[in-house]
Amino acid sequence: MTNQMEHVHDNGSDGMSPSYAHHSEATQHGEGVVAKAIETQTAKLPSDTFLWAAAGAIAASLALQVMGRKGESTFVAQWVPTLLILGLYNKIVKVAGSDRTSA
Fold first, then answer.
1. Per-residue confidence (pLDDT) for residue 31, from 0 to 100
2. pTM of whole model > 0.85?
3. Is the distance from CB of 59 to CB of 53 less than 8 angstroms?
4. Is position 66 within any domain?
5. What DSSP designation does 13 have?
6. Burial of 50 by CB count in 10 Å (0-12 exposed, 13-18 middle, 19+ buried)?
7. Could you tell me the residue range of the domain that residue 59 belongs to?
8. 3-class SS at 71?
9. Which residue has the higher pLDDT, 3 or 34?
10. CA–CA distance, 85 with 78 (Å, rounded to integer)
11. Fewer CB near the terminus (10 Å): N or C of the chain?
12. Exposed, middle or buried by CB within 10 Å (0-12, 13-18, 19+), for 57?
């Protein structure tokens, strides 16, 4: 007996191919003025800026921990994932910003 799921192909809710549907959606829904301004400014930063900032936060957190300032250490340590996500956003904007609609 064949599994029916093997024969199912999802080509979008409107019948278009997934890549065409994404392209069509991207052209219909542009970013706002604020998002474009943020993308323009963040694209100017080198990609490793946020990586170095995260490494600095790790070092600062470790130093605070060694000095016995555990509350401040935890606070600074919580910057690390945020900085790494901002770096990821920066990289994505450079590679595939919202104004790019062609693959």
1. 74
2. no
3. no
4. yes
5. T
6. buried
7. 31-98
8. helix
9. 34
10. 12
11. N
12. buried
